[in-house]
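Re: flavin mononucleotide structure - here you go.
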Amino acid sequence: MSSHIGKNISVSVFGQSHSAGIGCVVEGIPAGHQIDREALSAFMRRRAPGGLPWSTPRKEADEPEFLGGLVGDITCGAPLAAVIRNTNTRSSDYDALRRIPRPGHADYVAEVKFGGHQDASGGGHFSGRLTAPLCIAGGIAKQLLEESDVYVGAHLRRVAGIDDVAWDMHALTAEDVIAPGEKLFPVVDDRAGERMMDAIVEARSNRDSVGAVVECAAVGMPVGVGEPMFDGVENAIAAYCFGIPAVKGVEFGRGFEAADMKGSEHNDPYCMDGDRVAFRSNNAGGILGGISTGEPIVFRVAFKPTSSIFVEQDSVDLKDGADAKLSLKGRHDPCVAVRAVPVVEAVCALALYDLLLEERMDR
Ligand SMILES: Cc1cc2nc3c(=O)[nH]c(=O)nc-3n(C[C@H](O)[C@H](O)[C@H](O)COP(=O)(O)O)c2cc1C
Ligand SMILES: C=C(O[C@@H]1CC(C(=O)O)=C[C@@H](OP(=O)(O)O)[C@H]1O)C(=O)O
């Protein structure tokens, strides 16, 4: 397995859901940057599991322990290594799944690929738990971007078919993108949030789960960052997003809606703002030719409904080679996207910071 990504700043994620710990090694962080540890812990808590109606009951503090890369709270230029101990594991929940794989999870493909040697407990290295180390790396990247006045934030755009207010992609401010993340349930419109919560609780009480769309934006990216073809802003963000378990789609700007628009509707007209070239709209989501336009970068990420559900499902018994029924026990998120909102922010920050470093090295 290779769980490594990035060029100028790179991230390796290690560990399994039920191993002694999980963590990351981040290379390429320039020396001399102060890390706000309290802000990082607060960011980690937005993702941490346990205790809320939309969360798995598994309780973990998710407080990172830094083994290298910092002197005091200041980056020293050496690779940054951080671990989180796993404390609240219950591996017996997974005993039966070695024989009877969960539909929709990675149990079966892992069994075939790793010949039974994979760590199946808690979903092993496939688990959403591995997004905690991504939040360590991404939480730091967010802080580094803020030094350059780039602000990243996200909200639940849709849950179980219930819509939050769509962001105005052209008018977005730093305050707009940060605001949902300051709430326990990260939406713009709290009434929509109430309805989403009700839908999640209802799905959970029906032993089922729901999917969702997370909308993320970065405000303050300068014009000219990114490359055409394979090293563009879209490529970098999408590659990171598909590292988040349960992500099935990523769209930028108007995304798939663009396919039903006319050129005259979709083009973002230029205008002069003093002596600066500006745009009248931002259907492009802040990216043209893979390169940032200076407008907010806006994208949406589709999360599938949690596969581990408690209704009886059809599966197979891999030992007997026969059809089998699966009745799951265990602790699972009824909607993974709620806790994944900060994860989307984290990967966005990592992708953009990597591209910004590239731009600075070129000059
Ligand atoms: C924050 C987060 C929490 C998750 N929690 C669960 C969970 O409790 N139960 C589950 O079956 N899947 C959960 N997932 C999704 C699975 O890890 C994922 O579906 C599985 O590894 C298979 O990968 P794939 O869906 O990308 O194909 C979670 C994902 C994230 C990002
Ligand atoms: C622990 C977390 O979520 C876990 C993600 C997960 C999965 O299959 O992705 C399955 C569950 O694992 P367990 O059976 O060990 O409780 C979740 O609780 C976390 O996100 O930190």
